[in-house]
């Protein structure tokens, strides 16, 4: 499923890699500006907050849409515990560890944010859902940059990426409050990880086993998007048992759980002349 990665570390110096990556950042900024010039303002989809499952159970409105966020809390705690207490099989670079920790932290916060939103769906409460969500994608992107390209580069990009994601999300919330909603910047923030994470996985060399977990992540993520778009249809087809949006939460929970499994189970891989010669030797990384 994955093409053979190009051998960047041997073909290019770290200085060259950083230069190309910063050029890419400049191009991304340029595309962002051009997109806002060419593409007209885009409003939040009408009826976005009108979910199929409105059941009020045990005093909790939208009961299943709220409770289905529990997997995010669990995965967030598991991931932070794994990294904080260094329970991974292989040693992990400090920068890489911190970035993956940030990923699980935002997953955890996002569980609360999404639960809060679904108690009373509105553009205002949606802001608390989208803020950690946008930061989650940027954190995973930064972690993969650290793992496969350069820890120093990832450290330098992390805070600008988080700041960009935060400001774009706040900007969307502000425009909605002014009656002139503009979701373009927020959509761009979500597009960046969706574009660059697969590129990194496909074209940059891997140091660890466990690529299958990223395949599972993509599969579960795809299922979550499909089920979200078919919220009412799924609810009707299951005779009111479960909605597409609830399935979205559950499958996204499984998706981010794959990152936990990857970090917990991955093994350092040592290659010589493109041949794997040792899959169990641990070196300082």
From TrEMBL:
Natural source organism: Panagrolaimus davidi
Record's protein name: Alkaline ceramidase
Family under the similarity heading: Belongs to the alkaline ceramidase family.
Membrane-spanning intervals of the chain: 20-42, 62-85, 97-119, 131-150, 157-174, 186-204, 211-227, 247-263
Sorted UniProt keywords: Hydrolase, Lipid metabolism, Membrane, Metal-binding, Transmembrane, Transmembrane helix, Zinc
Keyword Metal-binding carried by entry: yes
UniProt cross-references to PANTHER family, sorted A to Z: OS01G0962200 PROTEIN (PTHR34368)
GO molecular function terms listed in the Swiss-Prot or TrEMBL record: hydrolase activity, acting on carbon-nitrogen (but not peptide) bonds, in linear amides; metal ion binding
Cofactor needs: Zn(2+)
């Amino acid at each position: 499923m994955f093409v053979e990665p190009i051998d960047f570390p041997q073909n290019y110096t770290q200085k060259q890699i950083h230069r190309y990556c910063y050029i890419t950042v400049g191009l991304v900024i340029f595309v962002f500006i051009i997109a806002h010039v060419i593409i007209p303002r885009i409003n939040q989809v009408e009826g976005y907050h009108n979910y199929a499952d409105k059941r009020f159970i045990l005093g909790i409105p939208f009961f299943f849409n709220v409770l289905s966020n529990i997997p995010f809390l669990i995965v967030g705690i598991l991931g932070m515990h794994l990294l904080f207490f260094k329970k991974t099989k292989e040693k992990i670079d400090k920068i890489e560890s911190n970035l993956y920790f940030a990923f699980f932290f935002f997953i955890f916060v996002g569980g609360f944010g999404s639960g809060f939103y679904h108690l009373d769906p509105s553009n205002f409460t949606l802001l608390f859902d989208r803020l950690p969500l946008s930061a989650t994608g940027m954190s995973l992107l930064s972690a993969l940059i650290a793992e496969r390209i350069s820890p120093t580069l990832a450290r330098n990009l992390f805070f600008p990426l988080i700041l960009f994601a935060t400001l774009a999300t706040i900007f969307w919330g502000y425009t909605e409050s002014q009656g002139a909603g503009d979701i373009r910047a927020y959509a761009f923030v979500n597009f960046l990880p969706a574009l660059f994470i697969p590129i990194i996985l496909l074209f940059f060399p891997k140091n660890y086993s466990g690529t299958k977990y990223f395949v599972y992540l993509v599969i579960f993520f795809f299922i979550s998007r499909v089920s979200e778009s078919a919220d009412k249809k799924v609810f009707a087809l299951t005779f009111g048992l479960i909605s597409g949006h609830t399935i979205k939460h559950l499958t996204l929970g499984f998706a981010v759980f794959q990152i936990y499994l990857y970090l917990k189970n991955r093994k350092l891989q040592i290659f010589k002349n493109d041949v794997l010669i040792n899959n169990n030797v641990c070196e300082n990384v």
